[in-house]
């Protein structure tokens, strides 16, 4: 087993330029950094990759344009970003961006009063796990009710605008892929909503940047909890070549091309990040040992089980 196997690293919003630059230097010194086109050739042809890394960013937070993009140009590192055309054009935040400073107790009370879960479930589990167990319409209904009773205005959009997205599209470093319209947990949705969220995001985004969209990232991205075969069938019909999950594992030829694993970096010093890279999917085992049943995936599965029963 190689010390540093082929890997895809995913990021979200970036607030610390120095940290991001340190991570890019670490990856650049450890791996050969490759374009997503190289991944497509790897999966669809005889192209071989060894000790390589591709980096991706989900959601389209404006910090990518302001902080990450200049660093990618500085180090000539290719990347992919998965965005919602709805957020870009209509300037609407994703639900989790909107509630970043909301009072969790009030949100949980609203969820309980609306009967999405019983009172015990609504107060026992953390807010993020609860919301990720709801349909997107239910999430936004909860947010709108919170805004009404607390007199809280909608936040200004924190995502990139159309001009910034087009600037990225014209570069040779950044590939743009779809990430649904409203960031639902697709597995929670009806067949109609799931297909609409996928298909419309691909077609709308293609229209905006005037390019065919070949890549997709699942919101949240845990296989069989957040997406499944239904979503992969839709993506195949839409002409998507590669789709990315949040399964923490090196990538290999044995992967399903519409469920390619990615590791995630949020924080940490170089030694911490190197340890994550070396451990690969064993990192999840270490994390579960430390957190027990309090990790988000375990909580969501318990909520789902209680809801079914």
Question: What would you say this structure looks like, in words?
Answer:
Helix content is 50%, strand content 11%. The longest helix is centred in the middle third of the chain and has 19 residues, at 191-209. Strand 2 (32-33), helix 2 and strand 3 form a beta-alpha-beta unit. The protein contains 15 helices and eight strands.
Helix and strand arrangement:
Elements (H helix, E strand, L loop, with lengths): L6 E5 L5 H14 L1 E2 L2 H9 L7 E8 L2 H14 L3 E5 L1 H6 L4 H4 L5 H10 L5 H6 L2 H5 L4 H15 L11 H9 L3 E5 L12 H19 L5 E3 L11 H9 L4 E3 L18 E2 L5 H10 L2 H10 L4 H13 L1
Parallel strand pairs: 1-3, 1-8, 2-3, 3-4, 4-5, 6-7
* Secondary-structure element string: EHEHEHEHHHHHHHEHEHEEHHH
Query: Approximately how much helix is present in the residues?
Result: 40-55%
Largest sheet: 6 strands, parallel
Tell me, rounded to a whole number, the average pLDDT: 90
Distance between the amino and carboxyl termini: 43 Å
Helix/strand-derived class?
alpha/beta
Number of strands: 8
β-strand percent reads 5-15%
Q: Choose one word for the global shape.
A: globular
Number of helices: 15
Rg computed from alpha carbons, rounded to a whole number of angstroms? 19 Å
Poorly predicted regions are: none
Regarding quaternary structure, what we see is single chain
